[in-house]
Amino acid sequence: MYADYDYYRTLYGGRLSEQEYTFAAARASEYLASVTHDRITEDILADDTTGRAVKMCCCAMADLIQKQEQRDGKTAEKVGDYSVSYADSDTNQTARQKRRYELAYMYLSRYGLMFRGVE
After folding, report:
1. Is residue 118 very low, low, confident or very high in pLDDT (cuts 50, 70, 90)?
2. pTM
3. Would you state the torsion angle of the CA atoms of residues 11, 40, 97, 5, taken in this order, to the nearest 10 degrees?
4. Distance CA 27, CA 33 (A)
5. C-alpha distance from residue 118 to each of 27, 35, 107, 113 (Å)
6. Which of 114, 109, 107 is nearest to 54 (CA)?
């Protein structure tokens, strides 16, 4: 996990419980390892600038994953005369992945961590 719960609560200002965060941050870290092609090392995490970006991204990604899991495919919900609309699973999965990638790109692209070519 790239950012521990203490970092999440104190520096990021997150509001998830420790159990919720731990579960979501583990998934977030795996996703970030994938989109960065396993370029996030201990040296990168120790760097004040790049490490901070990775940790903040992990926290933001954990929040996003938790939020996406809570919605569970809902596209609309109405309270009076209760009504709920769901996206089909393929559309929903594509939208989730797109939002996760956009978030990672926002935090990490300027550091070359998401570059797909050979260095």
Report:
1. low
2. 0.83
3. -30
4. 10
5. 26, 15, 21, 12
6. 107
